[in-house]
Amino acid sequence: MRMITLLTVLALTPHANADDNERAAVMSAAQAAFDAVRSQKLDDWSDVLYSPDGNILAFRPVAESDTPAMTGQIVTFEQRLAGMEPDGVDLVETWIGEPSVLVHGPLAVIWGLYEFRIDGELSHCGITAMELAKSDGEWKIANWSFTVEPDGCPEAE
């Protein structure tokens, strides 16, 4: 609900669309988060997070459902990263096309299609939505929501 409200407010707020420099800075922060997924190193995560209390909200398909239903699970970054250690698996998350970026003052939102590969094989795709906050002149990930959709992924351009 918080993400929908923020997206609505930013979309209706004058000057919400990012200028080229701010867009590049926000996209750089998002790429650093994708890089942290790949490295699986806690130090990389601590560099990109606004707070360990931020949330990860993941929607995944409901197993054995006759409809394309999804269920959401929310955890804090701290909960998700507890005990994380690199395991040698190559995880690569990339954008499909150009995501939308909205910026207003110290708040930004990125929303776009992504694909996720494990050891080079497509695992799933979906929508990633990140809320970012500016801290000491740097963009940091405050909250991260995404869908996990193993079927019907578009080909990356």
Describe this entry's structure for a reader.
It is a single chain. The protein has helices at 2-12, 20-39, 42-48, 77-81; strands spanning 55-61, 70-76, 91-95, 100-104, 107-118, 121-135, 138-147. With 157 residues, it is α+β, with helices and mostly antiparallel strands.
CATH topology description: Nuclear Transport Factor 2, Chain: A
Name the beta content range. Answer: 35-45%
Determine Rg (CA atoms, Å). Answer: 16 Å
Q: How many discrete domains? A: 1
Number of helices: 4
Task: Please report the total strand number as a whole number.
Answer: 7
Largest sheet: 7 strands, mixed
In round numbers, the mean pLDDT is 87
Query: What would CATH call the architecture?
Result: Roll
Instruction: Report helical residue fraction.
Output: 25-40%
Brief descriptors of the model:
single chain, 157 residues, alpha+beta, Nuclear Transport Factor 2, Chain: A, seven-stranded mixed beta sheet, 4 helices, 7 strands, 39% strand, globular
What's a concise summary of this model?
The protein is of the alpha+beta class. The protein has helices spanning about 1-10, 20-40, 40-50, 75-80; strands spanning about 55-60, 70-75, 90-95, 100-105, 105-120, 120-135, 140-145.
